[in-house]
Structures are given as C-alpha cells and as structure tokens.
Batch of 4 targets.
Target 1
Amino acid sequence: MAATFQFSESNTVAETVTDGISNLNMGSNDSINLNTSTYPIIVGQNSFSKYLRAKFSSTFTEISNMKFWKSVGTLVTGETIKAAANVAFATPSQTGTGDSDIPTTEGTALAIQAADGSSTIVAVGYTKYIRLQLNTTGSSPSGAVNQKTYTMQWDEV
C-alpha cells in the first residue's frame, strides 16, 4: 500500500495545526485556506509567513529524499517568494524572514528532513517545517499575482 500525503499548515501564537489544507494562498492575515480578496498584500509589504509540513500516513516502509520547490508560475515585477527548510515554528508575522529565494528546479530544491531531524520517515508523521513568505516592493503591481505551483517530491519504499 502507498503512503498518503497531505500538506499541513501551522498558525497562531499557540500553534494551531491544520492537516489537509486546500490552498497555500499568501496574504495579510495568518490563516489557513486564505482568501486573497479578503486579505490582500499591500504593495511594498510582505505576506504573513506560512509554516508548512508534509504529513505522511497510511502504510509504508520508508519515505526519503524529500524535496520542495516552486515548479510553475512566473513572478510579477517586484515579487519574490522566500523559503527555508527545516526551521522551527514561530508565530507567523509580516516581518521579513530574511530567507533565500525559493528554488525553482528540482536540482536546487530544498532538502526536507523528517520531524526528528533524520533524512527518512519510517512511521506515520510529519516533516520539519518549510517556511514561505511572499515579499513585494513598491514596483509590484497591485491586484492578484500569478498562480504558482509548489512541488513536494519523495522516494517511497
């Protein structure tokens, strides 16, 4: 039988975990499945940071070689997406994270660790956190940005 995968997002000061999120929209609020029309990012500001984890369940022997990157979607003028792997959870905020630009190829993808810091998951559980944040500048156009696709890849035994 194959592993079941879902993204989980952590929010709020006390860390509320939601498994199986339906979107990864970034905006001016710390919430899951965010509606960007309700919580737009003001030009020149940042989105709230997002703390994601992959959760693997069902029956499997081992998950390894976990990678994460932005695989599809063009950035608009003045827009960057920052990303870091294997970070600790912190209360999401709009303060710049100082992370690097998100990788855009499998060859430069973020290497993701299991929650225990190892390179493999051998029982139902989570990975370490992936932190994402969308940054804009004064030259960014107002309105919706282009849709992006993020890829999480792994090997399964």
Target 2
Amino acid sequence: MRIPKSPSLKAGRVYRTADLSRWDRNGTRLARRLEKDGKLRRLAQGLYVCEEQSAFGPVPPGDEEVLCAFLKKTPFVISGPSQWNLLGLRSTALFADTWVYNTRRTCTLNVGNRRLHLRRVRFPKRPTPEWYVVDLLLHHDSAGMALQDLEDALRSALSAGRFDAGLLREAAAGYGTRETRRLVERASASRPGP
C-alpha cells in the first residue's frame, strides 16, 4: 500500500476533502488521518480546517474562508444582522445566524457553533448600502422591526444624506417587492428638498 506524503497545510485555511486528493486519491481517508493526528479539525461534512493558533488557543476560521471552500468559486454575499445593524436604521437584530446569498445552493451549514443559512437568490456583484437597506426591508420581520418604524428611520436617513435615493430606488426596482418599492418611494418623496 502506498503511503501518501504528508501535505503542507496552511494555518487558517479550510479544506474540502476534494482539495486533499492532490496528496492522496482518497481525500476522505487522508482527512480522517490528519484529523486523528491533530493537523485538521472537522467543521462539517467534507470540510476541515487547519487551525491557526494564537496565545489564547485555536482561532476559528472566518465565514469568508469557510464559504470560499464550501462554495468553491461560486460568488456569494454575506447578509443578515451583522450587515443590517450597520445601516443605522435602528435595527438591532441579535440572532447569530449569518445569511449567505449565492448562485449555487440553498441549505443550512452548521460550522462549530455558527449557522450559515445559504440561499440561492439573485444579488448584485458589488452590494451597496442601499441594496442592504432593501434586503433589510424584505426581511424586517427577521430583524424584529415593524415596516412603519423602518420607513420612519429610512426617511430620516435619506434626509440626513446617509443613503443615495437614486441607488435606493434602483436596488428596490431590481431586488425588492412591490411593497418594498412603494415604501422606498414614500420615504424618498417625503424627505425635505435642498
């Protein structure tokens, strides 16, 4: 039996079992051996991390690293509370799940104590803050906000010049529902002029 050479793994990188097949034809077997030797830690089925060590112990991989390995070269956008709370529209959603829009699959990926909800939907190549506003409006119930409260906060933000009304209308037209488009129009039309 041929003994595979020991792969040179990069700390902090997430590997699929298929990635390990360049060192051994059976990537799954090699992953199990490396896990047993303490060189890899299993994240999810078919996903392993070569943990980076810090003074405080192992450093978990970031969502981007996990998603790049899991989705391969498929484009994706991270959304959810971490993005919505940054908009300054009084959203304070606290659930720890991350939403990932992609063009490949819909599923929930449990990585350690984190949950990544993958949704196969359309999204822009370069999301703008205005697109994230539309995303928040579409998922206001998940953020624990009433639409009227969001509309009031959006009107104030537009009045303060924090968002571009034209880009917001474009995002609503391309990615929103009829209700979202109407809400954006009301918020944009009622803001005071220069």
Target 3
Amino acid sequence: MGTQQILMIVLAIIVVGAAISVGIVMFDTQARNQTRRAVTVEIADIAVEAQAWFRKPKMLGGGEGSFDSNDVDSLITYINGGRIGDIVTPTGTYTITYQSNNTIKISALSLRYDITIEVLVNLDASGANYGIRFL
C-alpha cells in the first residue's frame, strides 16, 4: 500500500473514533437529564401526597394541619404504601425529614447517577399559604 492510502485509513480511524466518543457523551448527557427530570417528577408527586396527608383529619390517618415530628413516620407509611423507611423507586431513594409543624424536607438521591434534589414542602393549616420550593 502507498503512504497515501495508509494516511487515509489512519485519518478515517481517527474520525470514526471521535464520532463514537461524541456520541457516547451526548447519550450520557441525555440520560442524566432524563433521570433528573424523572426524579423531579417523583419528588413533586411525593410532595403532593404530603400535602394531601397534611390536610386529611387524624381520624382518617392524616396530619390534620400539622407535620408533627411524631407523625412523620405516619406520613412516610401513608406515601410508601404501608412500609416505613425511605421511599425507594426504580429512579431514586427519597427521604422525608421533619423541619417544623408546617414544613418537611424531601431529599432525593438518584440510583443511576449522582443526582441529589431537595425540596421543602411548607404548608399552612388554614390552607391559605402553601408551597413547594426546590433547593
């Protein structure tokens, strides 16, 4: 083979290698973004469940307008389908911690990537003031 043909083969190998590495990086970035979106949706769903529990009367298994530190386990059991402990889904692990009578903190850690998202759920017993704030 001539030197020109060898040079073309080497150049083609370099171009193909660069294209493959760029494709891998793009795929990984897309997968991370998709995981971040999925964790965000799940943490928002958990926050909505916490709001429902907050407003539900105690005799129906709710918080009756308070995130009492003693009742956080009851909230976790309510959201987690009867199980106590962290809420584990295929996307991530979610932890609920007591902050005050009207505020809880939900922390999410992705199982696939090192993505952490935290949310403060702050509710008022009157129902006039509530919010979900991503940290």
Target 4
Amino acid sequence: MTFTLIFTKEAEEQLRNLKRDRSKISQFKSIVKSLKLLRDNPRHPSLHTHKYHSIKGHNNQDIFEAYAQQKTPSAYRIFFCYGRERRQIVIISIIPHS
C-alpha cells in the first residue's frame, strides 16, 4: 500500500536546489531514497519517523520528521504531515538538521 506524496512549493524548491548543486549529490540521493521509503512505508525503521512536537500544521495537524541521513554533519530531515485524503503524505520541508 503506497502513499501519494504531495510537495509544498517550499519542499519542491528545496529538492530542486539540492538536485542542481553538484556538491550535494550524495545528500540528494539519500533524500530520494528516503522519499521512496516514506511513500512505501512511513514507519520504515531506517526513517526513524517520529512526531515533531515543536510545531503544529494547519488545522492543528501533527507534523512528523523522518531522517534522510544519519550520523552525518548537517544530516537532512524530511518534515511531513498526512494529507486530507486517505494515503496522502504532504512533504512540507527538506532541510539539514542543525
């Protein structure tokens, strides 16, 4: 059972910028792999998906964080929430962990 991934404009731009930056090709590949895992199984163990408690989404939705990388300086994270329709995931942001 796969999910449909919907990207915000911000997330689309972040992914596009990573793809263009040749110095971040390994990060881009890790993110693409993680997005596929997220699409197929948001609870895949390697994603370490967990609720992000610092912020809430529109209509007080829960926001989740999934790891695209681990044990790497400025490792990338994918922030998402579940969509309005069944089996939808909205990718909110793809950013390096600070």
